[in-house]
Write a structure and sequence with these properties.
26% strand, single chain, 5 helices, 119 residues, alpha+beta, 5-stranded mixed β-sheet, Beta Polymerase, domain 2
Amino acid sequence: MGETGRLKPIDAAQQFIDQYFENCQGAILAGSVIRGGGTETSDLDIVVFDHKLHSSYRESLIAFHWPIEFFAHNLTSYQDFFQSDYKRARPSLPRMVSEGIVLKDEGVIEPIRKEARKY
């Protein structure tokens, strides 16, 4: 546990995946907390890849004493977001995927990262 009495970011993120997305094919912890710019009020940004999802969605919640914002995608929906972010000159999702810490990978993360690096 950290100074604030809550779990370290990676431990909280791992527990989140284990509890809410145990059957996903991949998950990444990204954002300021892994880049070293996190503050006491930072959230955990988690990208989830799950082939069972019909469409992508984004949700915010509090779990494991952390505010968490997660971005859930199936194994193709992220591609539209990569394109959209590129067109807006704000590659948020490609950056999260490229720079994040892998929490879970059943062989999907590296191909998706390869795509993200194009943006």
